[in-house]
Prior knowledge:
This protein is of the alpha/beta class. It is 27% helix and 19% strand. It contains 13 helices and 17 strands. It has helices at 110-120, 132-135, 160-167, 169-183, 197-206, 225-233, 253-265, 295-301, 358-362, 369-377, 381-386, 397-401, 408-419, and strands at residues 13-15, 21-25, 35-36, 43-44, 49-52, 61-62, 67-75, 83-90, 146-150, 187-193, 211-216, 248-252, 271-277, 285-290, 311-314, 321-323, 336-340. The strands form 4 sheets. A 6-stranded mixed sheet has the order 1-14-13-17-15-16.
Amino acid sequence: MADHKELTCDCAITPVPTPARVVLPVKQHIGALAQVVVKKGDVVQKGQLIAQCDGKVSANICASVSGTVIDISPQPHHSGCPVPAVVIETGEKQVWQTDLTPVSLDEVKPSEIVDIVKKAGIVGMGGAGFPTHVKLTPPRDKVIQTLIINGCECEPYLTGDYRLMVEHPKEVVFGAKALAKAVGAEQVFIGVEDNKPKAIQALQEAADDGISVIPLRTKYPQGAEKQLIYSILEREVPRGGLPMDVGVMVNNVATAYAVWQALVKGWPLVERVVTVTGEGIAKPGNYLVPLGMTVGDLIEACMGFVGDPGKIILGGPMMGTAITDLRVPITKDTTGIVVLTREQARREVVYPCIKCGRCLEVCPVYLVPTAIARFAEHDELDAAEEYGARCCIECGCCSFVCPSNRPLVHWIQVAKAKLGLIGDNVG
């Protein structure tokens, strides 16, 4: 399968012009909504806290620009449902204001790293959006022996993590060491697929004796947590379990870079690298984007569409979410924007299942996708859960190989949404 990474893999990370306004949803993470701490009319500075984490699983939101709060109301969101957001009109002067102070990794305590990560609002940036400070505080009976930094970026089209590894390997390594110190991990591995030789070389040159850079076979979905753990350590995470059950914690490359920014520069998470790509975009590339910039503004900064787009996907084509509203903002978990042509996005005719078993053959977690999807389609949720809906990582392999073009992942996602389940993530 072509990965289409050649469109942007040689494109250096480029900052985009500051937009006229940003829309910052209070949900850019898994868990409870952050609670807004500013009001309409307030003047805020870049990096200032505007919404505070609320509850055990939540994350801070900080202003990505200096300016004036012009609205606090539900706004378009990639979930498809409006989400409360703080809308900031950008001011003429951009001034940093944060509660974070740069620290020395040698002197900072593990608990202080966790506190800094929490204040910075850092979440899993490979697409999952799980608050990192929560991941760094596992139950006392779960000892983290090994930290793995996920540099696989196995989704087609996406190359933002690749460019971070090539351009900022020392920063990624620093972030990895900080994360390992926070949880007391004795082993640190950075896993990178072998189709990224420049990234592997850059990280190997930046790494010291305490970090091992592991080239891995290029095979989708190599970047899924459980598959990555098995590839590097040959440890199998139990069904329904988490990496910490086998003494492992996994963090994304971009997350490690954000930790470096928080500890060394004193910056909260207010921007991220986004791959804007696809045959339907005029100027594909990897862009440093302020959080809250709308998809429409970002596409305009990339010289617009080529022709009439057929589909716009946030994330990668295998696991991403199609959107129909260009007012949707970039959030902490937005890895890319893929613009497909009308020919690429044409609807396929869906046929009945022919029971060929191809979906079983490719499922990386050994499920029966066609059965779970059928149960979901008929609202038999107990059966869907019994067959392992909870364990589906939504990688899209089953839908991709189905000769009947059945939307298997869609129906499994429906079952999980109705059951209130949250799966793994890839990349």
